[in-house]
Amino acid sequence: MSEHLIDKLLLLTEKNDASDLLVRTNDPVRLRINGKWVTLPKGKVSIPTRESVIDMIDHLARSLPMPPQVEGSNNLDFQYTLENVAHFRIHAMATSRNYGIVARRVPQIIPSFEDLKLPPVIRDICQFRNGLILVAGATGSGKSTTLASMLHSIIQERPVHVVSLEDPIEFQYPTNCMGTVTQREVGADVDNYTQGLHDAMREAPDIIVAGEVRDKQVIQLALTAAETGHLVGATVHATTAIGTIQRMMGAFSLDEQNAFMERMAESLRAIIVQKLLPIKSGKGRIVSLEILIRKSVIKQFIMDWEDKSQEIPRALEEGHNLYGTQTFDQHLQTLVEQDLVTFEEARAAATYQEDFDMRMGKN
Description:
By secondary structure, the chain is α/β, with parallel strands linked by helices. The chain has two domains: 5-106, Beta-Lactamase, CATH 3.30.450; 113-326, P-loop containing nucleotide triphosphate hydrolases (Rossmann fold). The protein has 16 helices and 13 strands. The protein has a seven-stranded mixed beta sheet with strand order 9-8-10-11-7-12-13, with helices on both faces. The chain has a six-stranded antiparallel beta sheet with strand order 3-2-1-6-5-4, with helices on one face. The termini are far apart. The relative contact order is 0.09.
């Protein structure tokens, strides 16, 4: 039997160390390499037709318990394994009355802190036994990878039971560790995140990974789990530590926000926000981090959010040597000074670009 075209494209994705594959009807196939989209030449890969894209989706979904009917579906999310090569997170979508596929490559081996070049404070954050840890960033910034690396570190060192809600399941955790991870896939093992969090409280967890917290009910359940002695990890689509809290607060009505902030001030342990930047040498990408750890000053700023939230960046910078906290711009400055990232890339990623110019003596 000849190898299917989509498998050949996924193999090409792996060989080129690309993070994503993009296939769309009547559009050249593209790979995302070091954060930039590269178009494959038409002579190498023909432009996909509607029928060929549907056939690719059918092939990818053929092993699902209930293979979906592609025609008439708006979107499909599932995982796919190319045997002995790599795992992929597949998103198939309707687009302009045709179809497309985005395949995100998931490493088969969970990266270590050293592989990801994460600072020592991340290991310290993993020592918390209860409360809420948030990993934030834009889509494709590596949130899931960082969270997986943290979980992997924890289960190697502590005999804990982790319940992880995922959509879909990406990384596979080893079973020969002190701790263990029960992974539940939304849509396959459990109907939704809300039900999964309800279930998790009855599954004897020490740690709960709540997936993405975006609506009020999921946020409330995650806070309740943190308040009842569990360590809870979750991801948020936000670009700063302040923005992370604001995004969660926005899920509540104005008359509920004070109560929410009081609960956050008590339960929050840390916020890790990340961006991926191209390395100056052109070989790969490196993570830039904003790190908040809730100490007494930060707790007070959260409690008095309206008047004091803008003091948080200064507190993160001043706490760097003592607590390991930092702002994006502070870390970006370090990356430029270490000759790992160009000034132009760092400035484009900076939270306050004019202030960043002054930091770097460019004013």
